[in-house]
Amino acid sequence: MSDEQLVLSTTDGHVTTLTLNRPKALNALSPELIDTLIAALEQCEADAQIRAVVLTGGPRAFAAGADIKAMAGASPMGMLTSRAIERWARIAAFRKPLIAAVSGFALGGGCELAMMCDMIVASETAQFGQPEINLGIIPGAGGTQRLTRAIGPYRAMELVLTGATISAQEAYQFGLINRLAPVESFLQEAQRLAAQVAEKAPLAAQLAKEAVRAAAETTLREGMAIELRNFYLLFDTEDQKEGMRAFIEKRPPVFEGR
Ligand code: DAK
Questions:
Q1: Burial of 58 (0-12, 13-18, 19+ CB in 10 A)
Q2: Measured from the CB, is residue 107 less than 6 Å from ligand 1?
Q3: Rounded to whole angstroms, what are the CA distances from 243 to 50, 142, 143, 199?
């Protein structure tokens, strides 16, 4: 299978949808798939026309985890020197708003990948979990940390220790996902949400993302400093002038991403 086919890309207006495309392996996240995804995200980051990205899989699986077959013979030093975690970190560091559209399995690395996104829209058939304990390992791409921050320590501990999965309905109740939609329309729902974000000033959206992220990743003092720096920086943009002028002139703003 060629690199292009592992991740499909379509663009509508300012929103690109990237689709993980290894359906026979339930989108198991092989190193090649991760590299192809990173390349696609880097293209989106470099293209000023793209203001938000939807990341999705198929109806049966968003992703059933890292590729166990590729990982089975791994060694600690081999994993360290392959820089795998730096590659995954590149996804988490994507600067533009990234929305996961999840249907079916989001397990292990698949759940971690969804949690690297900024919002999660799920179909009613979605299942989330960190089943690594069943393989004699633990989550390695943020599952113990991001899940705990998202749903709280007791629920996260239960999922990580038992390897159990939760349904989309439970994930919604626990605050892991933003929206729940029928399997026929979850992707459109995510694309609508992305389009809504893409109407806003793109630089403000990127700096807002960075600041909200900081709340989970830094102290309050550092997070406040990042928020304030980004707030000040935006007064150097044309979109700030346009947004405020449009308000005063009682018309919709036209944002250019400058
Ligand atoms: N890896 C490789 N192949 C997989 C796979 C996976 N994670 N999940 C499914 N497949 C393949 C199956 O082997 C099968 O292939 P064939 O036998 O047809 O060749 C095909 O997909 C269909 O799967 P099943 O026949 O098993 O389908 P079922 O409907 O019966 O079951 C299932 C679906 C999702 C419940 C089951 O496939 C399953 O339990 N899958 C494994 C789920 C899992 O344990 N996931 C966690 C993997 S560990 C890190 C980065 C990432 C990670 C760690 C570190 N660093 C950067 C440090 C992540 C680790 C993980 O995700």
A1: middle
A2: yes
A3: 20, 37, 39, 12
Q: What's the CA gap between 205 and 10, in Å, rounded?
A: 21
pLDDT at residue number 33: 97
Q: Using CA positions, which residue lies closest to atom 41 of ligand 1?
A: 64
pLDDT band for 1, please (50, 70, 90 cuts): very low
Phi and psi at residue 250, in whole multiples of 5°? 55, 50
Tokens 């346009």, residue?
Answer: 242
**115 CB less than 6 Å from ligand 1?**
no
Q: Where are the domains of the chain?
A: 3-198, 202-248
Of ligand 1's listed atoms, the one at least distance from the Cα of 110 is 61
- pLDDT confidence of residue 24: 96
Question: pTM score, two decimals?
Answer: 0.97
| H helix count then E strand count, the chain | 13, 10
Q: List pLDDT tens digits, range 55-70.
A: 999 999 999 999 999 9
DSSP strand pairing (61-63 vs 105-107): parallel
Rounded-to-integer distance, Cα 130 and Cα 167, Å: 13
Contact, 100 vs 121, CB < 8 A?
A: yes
Cβ-count burial of 216 within 10 angstroms (0-12 exposed, 13-18 middle, 19+ buried)?
Answer: exposed
Please give the distance, rounded to the nearest whole angstrom, from the Cα atom of residue 66 to the centre of ligand 1: 7
Annotation: CATH topology of 202-248 = Lyase 2-enoyl-coa Hydratase; Chain  A, domain 2 (1.10.12)
Domain 3-198 annotated CATH 3.90.226.10: yes
